[in-house]
Amino acid sequence: MPELRSNGIDSSGDPSELLVADLTDEELVTAHLEGTPGAFNELFNRYRERLTHFITRKTGDSDRAQDLVQEAFIRVTRHLHRFDTSKKFSTWVYTIASNLSKNELRNRSRSPLVLFQKLTNNWEDDHRPLQFEDGTMKPDDLYRKRYLERIVEDTVKELPEHHRLVFRLRELEGKSYEEIAEITGVNLGTVKSRLHRARNSFAQRIEHLLN
Known about the structure:
It is rod-shaped and about 80 Å long. It has helices at residues 25-33, 39-59, 62-79, 89-109, 112-120, 139-157, 161-172, 177-184, 188-210. Helix 1 (25-33) crosses helix 2 (39-59), helix 6 crosses helix 9 (188-210) and helix 7 packs across helix 9. It starts with 24 loop residues before the first helix and ends with a helix. The chain is mainly α.
């Protein structure tokens, strides 16, 4: 892949030649394939910022968007010889960027760590108990959810008994703090304290299984 620099002007010194900046996108494709210096860099510079904003809006991650723009142009260089210059280059490159964004979001949704974070990001709210599956899931998503459920169960078993009990009652069975206090025979303050320590211990124990 040609080096991507912010230098898109042909400096051959021949005033009879058009500067690459004056060429259309499709003319730049042809110029690059014919070996014109700076043609590809001009294409990259025209779309780098716009594609970064586009992918950031799609993925919500500006840092990752920069990586995906680079990946988009790697794909451009790989397939540029097959590009039909009677079509619009902008449509093609945005389609590549859109597909990369979709792949990024799909890969995130399949990550066990992301699934776990979705399950536990409302630990202080009343979203109880933890839900691992629903009837609208596709088979592969259902498999990943069941895998997550299994490692959650295995991790809970490793907790100290007094932490394990409050964690299971609250996070897996959906009991209220008051119900847990009644079941365990301790006051609300102790329930909350034990639950806080149980959550921290649980997170530390399960982390290596999700990486």
